[in-house]
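pinging the channel bc i need a second pair of eyes. not urgent but kinda urgent?? the chain im working w is below, pasted from the shared doc
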Amino acid sequence: MTLGLLGRKVGMTQIFAADGTSVPVTVVAIEPNTVTKLRTPDRDGYTAVQVGIEAGKRRLNKPDLGQFKGELPPCPVTREFRVDSVDGMTLGQTLDVTLFAEGDLVDVTGISKGKGFAGTIKRHSFASGPETHGADHHREPGSIGAGTTPGRVYKGTRMAGHMGVDRVTVQKMKIVRCDGARNLILVRGSIPGAKNALVAMSKSVQI
């Protein structure tokens, strides 16, 4: 339960470490995050910090604008991060890339790329059938259950269906570089989501 930031996935590239090795990284653009709400156990039953960004500049309706009355800027995109305490946090406070440092381990949450309706080979890594000797079932899934017993298809049987557009969290990803001048964070490896997708990044809990 740690504080985090919202950002946009820019894309992937590579940088070179001090020893000359190539490091694949994902670039995340972090615009200033505004603290829009503080959750407390007495009022809400749990402790959390809600942060928002103005990404996309989506128009808000009157009910949404209600929580930003006063000096808070309207933030079309908001997310909550569970924390142990909100001491030292104030409404309207701005958070940026300085929340993290090079070498930190972070958990990154995003919506995976949509793949549409996919077969079992693509969706579940099934093996394909024979390609010769008169075979005509190259990519079919095969049997999905017995006949008389149980006389039905078990729930959870791996079959063709919609693939992607799932909420995915990748844990303990290492921050390779923090660029405060350009508000960029470079994370080693790939993270969920397409280009320009919204991602939430928080420090990993060390066990």
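so Residues 62-66 form the longest helix (5 residues). and The radius of gyration is 23 Å. — does that match what u expected or am i reading it wrong
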